[in-house]
Amino acid sequence: MNKNFDYLGNTFQLQLINQIIEDKTFSSSIMDVLESSYFDNKYFKIIIQLIKEYYSKYESTPSFDTLEQLIKSEISQELVAKIVLDTLKQIKTAPFEGVSFVQEKGLKFCKQQELQKAMEKAQKIINEGDFESYDKVEGLVRDALQVGILDKGQSDVFSELDEVLVEDYRHPIPMGITGIDKLLKGGLAKGEIGVILAPTGVGKTTVLTKIANTAFNMGYNVLQIFFEDNPKIVQRKHFTIWTGIEPDNLAFHKDSVMSKVREIQDTMSNKLILKKLASDTMTMNQIKNQVRKIIADGTKIDMIVLDYIDCVLPEQSAKDEWKAEGSIMRAFEAMCHELDIAGWTATQGNRSSISSEVVTTDQMGGSIKKAQVGHVIITVAKTLQQKEMNLATIAITKSRLGKDGVVFENCKFNNELLEIDTESSVPS
Fold it and tell me: Which of 146, 167, 186 is a domain's end point?
């Protein structure tokens, strides 16, 4: 068995140390089982030793700036300090591509080393004929298998007090509908999911596209996944938001549209990624793998907009379709929590929702379990008269973030121009 990371190459080691410094969650999982001897370069070893000593004292990995100060203060030999600082610069600029592989491979290597140590101790006990120590042997192996597993759901009530008590501890991303954003205390934060519930043809894609466009305009990296629309149609919807020109008229104003779109393209450094997937063929795990690939290629996704959840398959064919629908929504929530992404999706209302003046949560098509998972559920209803007048009734039927049970009657809701305005509506 390999004793160090030499067989994986220099770039791998640069990336691994970079992730230990940059990704606090990953460093917490690997730090207790990481040894400086696992690195083949003596300057890597020095940096890892400094990181481990700092972690032991402060229970957190140092930043690059802090490490630079540590190197200058701890290493007395000027030439060695210079080389270590140069090595640190290489680590800081290590390529981001493939970091998921680097983290997984690095942690597995360390776990294998711990398991090997445990097996050697167990074998020694067995060789000595100490059969009364079976429980000890079992414990050694069990503990070795548990390394690197973080219990993210458990924390001391007094932990991270400074972070808990900051004024804006959620860092919400607005959805672009002012009246609703106020009630959601700024919008949806990373790790939270929101659901748009509406009958067919009312404008779920309109709402989701507006949310995606707003987040992008504010500098966030957004992934908009859709199953039923043509990518060019979705592009046109975004162009309409930016120009105020209806999708069908964009071609008649090609020069001004191109000028505006290129201006935005040149101004923004973040990304709005549109991804068309085949309906009823993708599971949430497959979608998560697609998101991971985008992240590994260098784009950290801040928000995912999934249009819509009913097109996603359960991981395994389930006899109980309702349970399967609930599991899909839970998998969406788990993905957003794990990858630190704000998630918006939509779901169809049932038949009774089509004629409703206000859509309620119990009019959700399929399993009501979908409603139990979401942090926020926003419903949209339109009578025939409202459709003719570009109006809608929007309601917040569930909110873990603020006030719910709020109804905005006769809001401006223009599907063509993707304009939604609740400010002129008085909550009932």
Answer: 146
Question: What range does the domain containing 41 cover?
Answer: 5-146
- Is residue 224 domain-shared with residue 309, that is, in the same domain? yes
How buried is residue 146: exposed, middle or buried, by Cβ count under 10 Å (0-12/13-18/19+)? exposed
Residue 204 · residue 358 · CB < 8 Å: no
Whether residues 292 and 407 fall in one domain: yes
- Domain of residue 14, CATH code: 1.10.860
pLDDT at 423: 82
Give residue 425's pLDDT band: very low, low, confident or very high (50, 70, 90): low
Domains contained in the chain, number: 2
pLDDT at 151 (0 to 100): 46
Q: Are residues 245 and 307 in the same domain?
A: yes
Tens digit of pLDDT for each residue in 118-133?
Answer: 777 777 777 777 656 6
Neighbouring residues of 211: CB distance < 8 A, sequence distance ≥ 6: 175, 176, 303, 305, 344
SS3 state of residue 367:
coil
The DSSP 8-state label assigned to residue 161 in this structure reads H
Same domain, 215 and 111: no
Please state, rounded to an integer, the average pLDDT across all residues of the chain: 85
Q: Which contacts (CB < 8 Å, 24+ apart) does range 279-285 have?
A: 279/227, 279/228, 279/311, 280/227, 280/311, 280/313, 281/313, 282/227, 282/311, 282/312, 282/313, 283/312, 283/313, 283/314, 283/315, 283/331, 284/312, 284/315, 284/328, 284/331, 284/332, 284/335, 285/315, 285/331
Confidence of residue 80 (pLDDT cuts 50, 70, 90): very high
Tell whether 242 and 331 lie within a shared domain.
Answer: yes
Whether residues 299 and 341 share a domain: the answer is yes
Residue 390 confidence (pLDDT): 92
Residue 169 located in a structural domain: no
Check residue 168 and give its pLDDT: 59
pTM across the whole model? 0.63
Between 268-277, 279-288, 383-392, the lowest mean confidence (pLDDT) is in: 279-288
Residue 2: pLDDT band (50, 70, 90) is low
Same domain, 268 and 325: yes
Alpha carbon distance 366, 344 (integer Å): 19
Look up the CATH number of the domain holding residue 226.
Answer: 3.40.50.300
